[in-house]
Structure formats: structure tokens, C-alpha cells
Design a protein that fits this description.
Layout lengths: L1 H9 L7 H8 L7 H16 L17 E7 L10 E8 L2 E9 L7 H25 L9
Antiparallel strand pairs: 1-2, 2-3
């Protein structure tokens, strides 16, 4: 379905719809009427929120890279796998975000949180190195 491809492109500037678009993309091999109605609902939401966006301030030396992570233990009802996500803020706005199903089935919420934390930590190290290469001299807020 071309609508899902277009919506995936829109998620680069509108991360608020990413979860729902990715969820719908799982069913594009055999979409039903319910999936089309969900896509139309996302399009109506986008039409009503055209003025929304992410605003960044000028980068300063004291700016910190701030990250948040969370996981949903066995939240997928289809295969009971956990999903974790993260978001990093810098200069007043989100600069990186991601959501990923865990490659393994976790047996406890603690284990799911550990997988989410390690996923977030790898992204944090990569972002910090990228910012240093761009001339940033700040730190990571812990």
C-alpha cells in the first residue's frame, strides 16, 4: 500500500505517528478494511496538526545529551515479544528516537528493561561520538 510508504516518509519529521505507522506496516501483505480506516485516521490527525513540529535552540557548550528509554514487557499480543524504545534530546528538541522489538523473548520485566537499557546505551555512545566529531564539548546527563 503506497499510503504506508508515504506515511513512513512523514515519520522522519513527525515522530508522533511512528508507532502506529510501523504497526500498520506489519499487515500490508494482506490489508483489510480496518487497516485502511486506521490509515485514514492518521491522515486526519496529520491534517489537524499541520502546525506541530520540533523546535531547536542554538547549540551551546553547556547543552547536554539527554536520553530516555522504556520497554513494554511481552506487549505484542501476536508473539508476546517485548518492545523497547528510546528518545534523545539535544538543544531543546528530539534528535534521535527508535523503537525495536526484542530479538529474544524475555522472561521477566527486569530482563526486558535490561535489553532496553543496553539498546539505548549503544545509541547514546554513537550519538555522543557523532556530536564530538561535530565540535560539541558538552557531556551526557546521567
Amino acid at each position: 500500500m503506497q499510503l504506508i510508504g508515504s506515511l513512513l516518509y512523514v515519520t522522519t519529521t513527525r515522530p508522533d505517528i511512528m508507532y502506529f505507522v510501523c504497526l500498520l506496516s506489519r499487515y500490508m501483505e494482506a490489508p483489510t478494511r480496518h487497516h485502511l480506516l486506521a490509515v485514514k485516521r492518521i491522515l486526519r490527525y496529520l491534517k489537524g496538526t499541520l502546525t506541530y513540529g520540533i523546535w531547536y535552540k542554538r547549540m551551546e557548550e553547556e547543552d547536554c545529551l539527554i536520553g530516555y528509554t522504556d520497554s513494554d514487557s511481552a506487549g505484542d499480543l501476536d508473539d508476546r515479544q517485548s518492545t523497547s524504545g528510546y528518545v534523545f534530546f539535544f538543544a531543546g528538541g528530539a534528535i534521535s528516537r527508535g523503537s525495536k522489538k526484542h530479538p529474544v523473548v524475555t522472561l521477566s520485566t527486569t530482563e526486558a528493561e535490561f535489553v532496553a537499557a543496553s539498546y539505548c546505551a549503544t545509541q547514546c555512545v554513537w550519538l555522543q561520538r557523532l556530536l564530538v566529531q561535530m565540535g560539541w564539548k558538552g557531556g551526557v546527563k546521567k
